[in-house]
Amino acid sequence: MALLDSEALFDEHAFENALPIPEVIDASRGRHITLQIHQTSQFLGLHDADGHALYTTVWGYGTGLGNTSYPGPTILAYEGVPITVNWQNKLPLTGHLLPVDTSLHFADSLTHPLSSGYVPIVTHLHGGHNDSIFDGLPDQWFTQSGGGNGPRGVGPGFVTSTMTYGNDQQAATLWYHDHALGITRLNVYAGLAGFYVLEDQNRLHLVKQGVLPSGDYDLGLAIQDRAFTSDGQLYYPALKPILFPAAI
């Protein structure tokens, strides 16, 4: 498998592109948000050997297919003001974007056979102080709909795909990401992650005093280790290659 050379890309194209800044959803006064998971094609700063831009197929969050992105939109919340997020699985029924090692402890394959195109997802607010039913635990996963209004399959811990976050904690930069049993690594690698910024009175006071940055100077940056094929697609082999000893 031919992969892109990261050193060559940096030498030839470093600092050419504007910093991508995710959309901000202001939920600081409380809000009901619907965020969908879609598959999309996104420019991640990659180029081929001739300098042509390469577009990568990724999974992302967004309020609709037309504005799906990785990272997903940044959710701005405020201490003590609950918000509700309805997470929807709108991935195509074409199976996982990456190879899956099903020998690992995995979400029940009998309930959502990957061979039929169903992919489990569940979103976890990392660092959030939440009730268990809203925590996005690994066995609370659900798949795409098979044609009706409900999910095709759900995990044994599934209660709801609409989560309420109480925000009863101090200001912090949190993040949300997929947490499905056995494939968290793959779903996050594919792009299912975004920022969740929780503010409080103390933080806003520090901003007003000029101690902390705000506005255009307060940006979320995600650093993720990825490999790409020569045509700009994500590379994540399911199994480590088996090296057989040479015949004597």
Explain what the structure shows.
By secondary structure, this protein is mostly beta strands. The protein is built from 3 helices and 11 strands. The chain has helices spanning about 5-15, 185-190, 200-210, and strands spanning about 25, 30-45, 55-60, 70-80, 85-90, 125, 160-165, 170-180, 195-200, 225-230, 235. The strands form 3 sheets. It has a 5-stranded mixed beta sheet with strand order 1-4-9-8-6. About 30% of the residues are buried.
Task: Let me know the number of strands.
Answer: 11
In CATH, the topology is named Immunoglobulin-like
Q: How large, in whole angstroms, is the Cα Rg? A: 20 Å
What summary fits the major beta sheet? 5 strands, mixed
CATH class: Mainly Beta
Number of domains: 1
Distance between the termini: 28 Å
Helix count equals 3
CATH superfamily: Cupredoxins -  blue copper proteins
User: Helix/strand/pairing class, anyone?
Assistant: mainly beta
Helix content: under 10%
Overall outline: globular
If strands are numbered along the chain, what order do they take across the biggest sheet?
1-4-9-8-6
Strand portion: 25-35%
In terms of topology, how is this protein built?
Elements: H1 6-13, E1 24-26, E2 32-47, E3 53-62, E4 72-78, E5 83-89, E6 123-126, E7 162-165, E8 172-178, H2 184-190, E9 193-199, H3 201-208, E10 227-228, E11 234-235
Parallel strand pairs: 1-4, 2-5, 4-9
Antiparallel strand pairs: 2-3, 5-7, 6-8, 8-9, 10-11
